[in-house]
Amino acid sequence: MGTDPLTITAWALAALAVILAWPAPILLSRARWPRRSPATAMILWQAIGLAGGLSMIGAMLTWGLAPLGDNLLSALERLFRIVFLNGSVEGLLFWHAFALSAAALLGAHLLFTLALTYFRIARQRRRHRELLLLLSSPAEQPGTVVINHAAPVAYCLPGGARSVTVLSDGLLNLLSSQELQAVLTHENTHLLQRHHLLLWAFAAWKSALPWLPTSKLAQRSVNELIEMLADDAALRVVAEPTLVRSIALVASGTTSLDTEPPLAGKAGLTPSNATPDNVLPAPEDATAARLERLLHPQPPLGQIGRAGILLLSALLLAAPTALLVLPTLW
Predict the structure, then answer these.
(1) What is the pTM of this model?
(2) Which of 244, 302, 267, 261 lies closest to 168, judged by CA?
């Protein structure tokens, strides 16, 4: 093992990438405290995902650059000469060239998958919005439409100024006015807090690295956390028993953000191509976790606990950058 600064940096970034790709997501998904402070947990999940990606790319990049210079700037300068000015490749072995190629390919793959996921989701939403124009009718509440379906269904369809909340006849027939208010507040919170952007990012992570089990685990955890955030907003306008009953009623139909099975059956779509890729069908255990959280409430994390987690998130984001910059200062 080399002892030059870039080699040491490469090993440090690789170790961080492994930690963030495997044990950290597993431990966080099994922890109980995220239910007490879902917003804080959401920040930590984002830090883990972003820092993990930067660490993976950074580890391969610095390993490949190690024989080209004593620090990142000098190594990048020599790499530029090799690529564009036909500079000498002395000291650059096959594995170093492979690592540099892998870093470039992984970075491009992540960015391409992020863009591809966005356009796929946008296309699915546009198609679904067209179906809603044909198969729904306006509701009394602004920004809300009603579809003719017996099952209790509620979901929101993001789209900026064209965002809409969709309810079914079956749900309206079951809900009281307070329960309806709870459902509408819950769905509107998804739209106001831009939860679909979080789902898009983690869906792209899962699509880009499907071989990584924790990418699916992270997506499920984030999906559960955004539901809890929306529940917290609903609790500010209705009583807990009202919210619990509304969750139970909607859960008997569908509870996922952007899930649209009613139109799938009416428009000849299958569930697989009717549901956007940035959301997972809410599993029964996720609904059970939400109900348990409401029925047996725990106090939120204290200021010290939240501050510690936010500090950890900031350190995770700063670590890859610091590891890349420090060799330049040596």
Answers:
(1) 0.88
(2) 261
